[in-house]
Amino acid sequence: MAGSIQVWDRAAARMTEEIVHGGGGVRFLYRTMVGRRLESLVLSRRFVSRLMGSWHGARFSKGMIPGFIRSQSIRMEEFEPAEYSSFNDFFVRRFRDGARNFHQDGSVLPAFAEARYLAFSKVTPDMRFPVKGTSMAPSPILAVPEEAGIDPGRFRGGPLLIARLCPADYHRYHYPDSGRTASTWTVHGRYHSVNPVALAALGDVFVRNERRVAILATERFGCLAYVEVGALGVGRIVQTHDEAEPFRRGGEKGMFLFGGSTVMVFGEPGAWTPSADLLEKTGQGIETLIRLGEPVGFRGQQPKP
């Protein structure tokens, strides 16, 4: 991964190279002593990401849009036609009707974000994979406050999906099933990058970073801990659905303003199993690019092919 990020594209059935926005800057920040000190002391602070968010929300920032589309090879025909008032307005663009569809089989857990996925069938407290030093244990990531009345132990030994969104991606995220929101809270923290280069350098990014947690009581997949992780440059994590209201499978939950970011979904043991192809690629240390709404898991045990 010296100069690029290789991911498995499920739809194309081949390895592809991810176009890293600001890749040289990321490598400087996380692979040099000067860069790491700069990132740790200044750039990961909340005010820096908020300033970046304000800049990308200003009208003059829309001049960045054409060059970003070209450099990231974004297929704009997949999105609703619109006149964007700022770069952030473009950043949270919506898919056209019919561009993506949620899998309708109730036994299938559909992809809640269009992203690069890692999957784990059983999360244990000491698990440090796929990045050395990165803890996937639910308790420190969820950081459940006492008033929430939630036992984080209910997710110990259960499945986990990690969806990493790079800046070129669709940055709205969705509900994988119908149900209601049992509890929500925010865990305040820094805004480190979630790029694999940063994960390899820092290890505990998912515990350090700002995140929003929602406990979802779903109809078919038990209780889910849905974690939205902020990252370097992410000005805000926005909830677009009223969490006091029930949600529907495929409905929009929220969006990230400018920056790469991550959604993590923890499940209860035995409630569902991640897709076999995701588990296989994760075991090889490879992320899988998944389109919104495609299968990423199955209720109970995955059926035999």
TrEMBL record:
What are the recorded GO MF terms, alphabetically? phosphatidylserine decarboxylase activity
InterPro entries, alphabetized: PS_Dcarbxylase
Q: Which GO terms describe its biological process?
A: phospholipid biosynthetic process
Keywords of this entry: Decarboxylase, Lyase, Pyruvate, Zymogen
Kindly provide the name given to this protein in its UniProt entry: Phosphatidylserine decarboxylase
Q: Which species is this record about?
A: Candidatus Polarisedimenticola svalbardensis
